Amino acid sequence: MRIAVQSDPFDLGKESEDFAAGHTDMGAIVTFAGVVRDIEGDTLDRMVIEHYPGMTEKALIKIASEAQERWSLGDVLVIHRYGDMRPGDRIMMVATAAPHRKDAFEAAEYLMDYLKSRAPFWKQEFTADGVEWVSAKSEDEDALGRW
Amino acid sequence: MRIAVQSDPFDLGKESEDFAAGHTDMGAIVTFAGVVRDIEGDTLDRMVIEHYPGMTEKALIKIASEAQERWSLGDVLVIHRYGDMRPGDRIMMVATAAPHRKDAFEAAEYLMDYLKSRAPFWKQEFTADGVEWVSAKSEDEDALGRW
Amino acid sequence: MKLDILYFAWVRERIGLPKEKLETSAATVMDLVEELRTREERYAMAFSDLTALRVAIDQELTDFDAALDGAREVAFFPPMTGG
Amino acid sequence: MKLDILYFAWVRERIGLPKEKLETSAATVMDLVEELRTREERYAMAFSDLTALRVAIDQELTDFDAALDGAREVAFFPPMTGG
What class of enzyme is it (chains A, B) (predicted)? Predict the structure, then answer.
């Protein structure tokens, strides 16, 4: 398991390649990357992600450990950034390696569902109209009901 | 949509990076890679994948088009190899880009479920014990019932 | 009607060739299978259990009771194992 | 009992500081919230709707009725928006 909480950008291609290369005994590799959407005509100028140093790492390790208990996994990777981000930047990624695709997919979805509403990150959007904290979505809370 | 059927290896890191970089208006990027498992002590020497030239491309385009009709997707990538493969080699990958994670995940799972049993590929394993065609698994056929 | 008949994977191995041309008046895939079965033992063997086989007409998956009207290419193969 | 109290996101902004030390005899998180509410208007504002708040004791998510026994750090923040 590797958990990284960092302000620096990460290299999605290299992280995906290295993760897969490190687990050639696993038949299935799934990755998810979350991006600050760069939408033409959108007023979003930048996004700032605040986090809770200390708790963030613990929460991510707990979520990843629970995924490893629930599914047959070779490994889990979570990278999540904080700080200043621009449209088009990658915010975070997860990767899972498993003998079979069902485990790799479900574990990645589980990680994402829990990351969304159980890891202490808060997004703030700076738009042409002002500054706003992103509200938690009820569908993200509801998504946990699946597990 | 990009569909590639090829005997050459593909670069998972570069394909993942390029796919994500080409869709910065999408918040969610999911990739799946299928690997010839390299298991210590395993007798697998190599794998040969046979396919049906002409039909393969059509089947993959059909599967990808159906995914694009069912989910809100920005794009779909499918790369599938045929020919000779060794343990640890990547057989195939899919990638999906969507505004939201649920669509990206479900579409990638759908692509994989259909690729498994509706695209004309046949795997043959060469082991220390001989040569054998891989049997279709009933759970792969059952997986289609989800959609 | 002149058809290209294609075989893949172990069907190809049992029959011993990947492709052949056939002049036939078979109305359906099933009629074509019956005709092939009577040719030689290796065909009878390959087509002994149709539940273990899949068929495509002109590169589209179909059923054994499908009509061959206008078909140019018929392919027989085991269940697919892609991904 | 001496506690570190941490605030994040708009809770931090409303209260106007990220962290403070507090000497308290509050038995539960709820007691602590009541105590904070009485301090100043900005605290009363920040804690006006507890359904919009989450709490962690020693960096573990918990509930407002959790006991503070042995706690060193209590954090208040809005629902999380990671991923």
Answer: transferase
